[in-house]
Amino acid sequence: AAMRSRAEVDATLQTAKLNPAELLPAVHCLSFGPQAGGGECCLLQLEPGLCAELEAGRSLVIRGEKDEHAVLCSKDKTYDVKIADTSNMLLFVPGCKTPEELNADPASCNIIHSQIAGFSKNYWELRRCRPKLKKLRKLLMEDPYEGPDSQKDQTSTFSKYTTEDLLSLIQASEEEILHQLQVIDACKIEGYWRILDFDYEMKLLSHVTQLIDSESWPLSKVPLCACLEELGSLEPREMIEHILLSYGRKYFDAGEVFFEMLEDKICRAIAQMLLQNAVKFNLSEFEEVWQQSVPEGMTTRLDQLQGLALVDKSSRPETIFLLKVEDLPEDNQERFNSLFGIREKWTEVDITPYIQDLCAEKQTVGALLTKYARSSMLNGVKVFNSRRPIS
């Protein structure tokens, strides 16, 4: 391309009816370089925090299998990646100076000849999103661990997953995945993450609670060493310790390890064991059996069952049935469709445990209900039903 002179630039400004006095004196003359293809470059818009991550030498990872919408993860956050089109063509000009830089350097050359190295009509836009963690439990539930004597474990054809495997399959950051593994009480067995089969977990828990009972230990001070000593002949020691970590809070006293047993979690697990064998249970009968089934000194309360079981107050007599939040869809609209399929009208108190986990950052349950449900009054109580017909 021929180099433009100042006279040509001034003539062009005049034709465009622009007043040179209102513009910076420096002029960029652009020409396309030989490699100015648009396809090789992708622009990614980063918030300052993510920019700082990259500048500090840490990496960002794009995760997802072929049939999944891509997400980008930092060490501890997950972002949806969407392509945003721009109406203006974006040009890549190496060494391009901004108006601020030109102003700061009055000696800067009058005419700057720049070559365009590439261009783009769109960029990737990031939006913070909830980590997609439902799949984590689903993968681990393919092959739950039934204990060291299980024949199934020797012959199982299901995949087993290491931390590395999960990082490549789950659309969430490393910290979110590791936190979720804790939440679902997964444990590492021979280097692989496993979830205990529920019946096996209950067997381990009853060993521990029976021992506490027979030794008359306070529920707030269960000694690890004595548990391992007494139960080590029945089950692997690491399984006994895992069940104490799952159902207790670990602490040290005079150099020894103790556990404070978590009443709510133990009561909840025993309720699940009772409920999973019946479609519906008469509520008052259930409450009686449940209280008799929990360890001495523990008190059962219905609010321990949030997100696990639902009471049907409209049936006579009242009933209770198992409804686990982790079995419901992860997508917002599908979750609401599923809930309104189970029950036509919900009170806010009943539906909250089943939608709480859908709330994005700083979003409330109320905002979700406004978007996906319609409210009305029923016998003086506010209830919510579907905004769309449920097939």
From TrEMBL:
- Per its UniProt entry, which superkingdom is the organism in? Eukaryota
Quote the cellular component terms of the Gene Ontology held in the record.
chromatin; chromosome, centromeric region; Ctf18 RFC-like complex
Could you tell me the keywords of this UniProt record? Answer: DNA replication
Pfam families in alphabetical order: Dcc1
**Biological process per Gene Ontology, one example term:** maintenance of mitotic sister chromatid cohesion
Q: Which InterPro entries match?
A: Dcc1 (IPR019128)
- For the keyword Cell membrane, the answer is no
PANTHER family per UniProt = SISTER CHROMATID COHESION PROTEIN DCC1 (PTHR13395:SF6), SISTER CHROMATID COHESION PROTEIN DCC1-RELATED (PTHR13395)
Regarding protein family, the annotation reads: Belongs to the DCC1 family.
What is the name attached to this protein's record?
Sister chromatid cohesion protein DCC1
* Native organism: Rhabdornis inornatus
